[in-house]
Amino acid sequence: MHTAPTRSSTPQTPDAPLLPRTGRLAFFLVTGLFFLWAVPNNLNDILIKQFMKSFEINRLQAGLVQSAFYLGYFCLSIPAALTMRRFGYKTGLLIGLLLYATGTFLFYPAAMARSYPLFLFALFVIASGLGFLETGSNPLIAQLGDPSTAVRRLNFSQAFNPLGAISGALIGSVFILSGVEPGAADVAHMKAIGIYEGFLRHETLRVIAPYMVLGVVVLVWALLLLRTKFPEIEGDTSAVDVRKSGGYLKLFRYPHFLTAVVAQFCYVGAQVATWSYFIQYCQDYTHVAEKRAGFLLVCTLGAFAVGRFTSSYVMKHFHPDKMLGAFAIANVMLLLVGILQPGWVGLIAVLLTSFFMSLMFPTIFAMGIRDLGEHTKEGSSLLIMSIIGGAVFTPLVGLTYQETKSMAVSMVVPLICYIVVAGFAYWGAHLAPFAETAPVAGPRGSE
To answer: Which domain covers residue 332, as residue numbers?
Structure first.
């Protein structure tokens, strides 16, 4: 294993077109998917707070929201890749949208039954659909246009992801969080007069309307996609038998890809864990009300959006790997402040980490699938499977809190994740592929 210069370590060609010359309608519709899948991702951050209240569960139990959600990504990413290898990107995206909509509509029976396990199943179904969408959309956007601008183009499309994230947090803060936070005395009083169960039921039912509307929007988008002609993409569908061509085993020849999977696993874990417990961090150290904490979550997602649009432009002039490494180190420093100075200073530091998260997912993704050729879909599916980091690190932060009773100390978990991302940027991204070894011929028999 040795290092060698890669395309990721050279500046982008300034004059190369960012957008594809043909199929721009398909490009923009697929870019819209980046917005759509961010909405449920960040509604989860609101659900964690809401379910702690409506189901009377602790932070570790509420973290299962993310575990169920990201398990859907993990389980469906490889089937998504195999489906798209056989039937093409468009078919895979349509399947993803239908699963997404189905999951949102399952929120209605889950809320009516006040069943936390059924909510978790609905989230699993939503994420199964998102697994299809992300497995297809990321490599499709990277391949729709000039190869030299693939990282910038993916960063451009991913810039719409934080807009969806902000929308999800706003929708949740306005329509799901009621702002009613009864203390122990209030709960005792409501129980005494027999209205506490009604209060919990009302809080649970608040999730229905946002998810029903979201499901309808997703179905409309699926119809638009169905009626849109996609441009020809080299290798979009293939009759090659994955098993005979080496398939997933071939990916072990690419150490830069394998380290990208690890980096993506850690990055998504850091992002999801930070946002999932951001409201709790706010309330623990600044004692603001849940509504205000929800709007502060919107602010950190706003920083994420600014970072996405800014980095997409700046990357024209700087090496993507160097930017990725610098941003990862910046987040290590900011989380140290959040750990050592809990309060408003620490909160601002944790809030600002979202700005530096912004370029990480698309940059790791585009650098990871570089030079995979016919195995791009398989590589894409494993990079999307690595999103399971959100299911692993979020409960880990919750467990750390249960042991230490400190959200500040719990931020050491995402801090370690960013150290791994920095390692990928400065080392893993530059690893050259292993040479393919030719089979050794056996001794010739006597003629």
So the answer is: 18-231+245-430
Q: Backbone phi, then psi, for 207, in 5-degree steps?
A: -80, -15
To the nearest 10 degrees (0 to 180), the angle between helices 150-158 and 360-368 is 150
For every residue of 240-260, DSSP letters joined together read --TTTT-HHHHGGG-HHHHHH
Conformational region of residue 247, where left means phi above 0, alpha means psi within -120 to 50, and beta covers everything else: left
Residue recorded with tokens 């707070």: 49
Please tell me the pTM assigned to this model: 0.77
**Domains of the chain: total:** 1
What are 401-405's contacts with CB under 8 Å, separation 24+? 401/59, 401/60, 401/277, 401/280, 402/58, 402/59, 402/60
CB atoms inside a 10 Å sphere around CB 306: 15
At 26, which CATH number? 1.20.1250.20
Is 236 part of a structural domain of the chain? no
Q: Residue 10: inside a domain, yes or no?
A: no
Nearest-CA neighbor of 372 among 196, 237, 250?
250
* Domain annotation covers residue 442: no
SS3 assignment, position 431: strand
Angle at which helices 290-314 and 150-158 cross, to 10°: 160
- Over residues 198-216, the pLDDT tens digits come to 999 999 999 999 999 999 9
Residue 347 belongs to a domain? yes
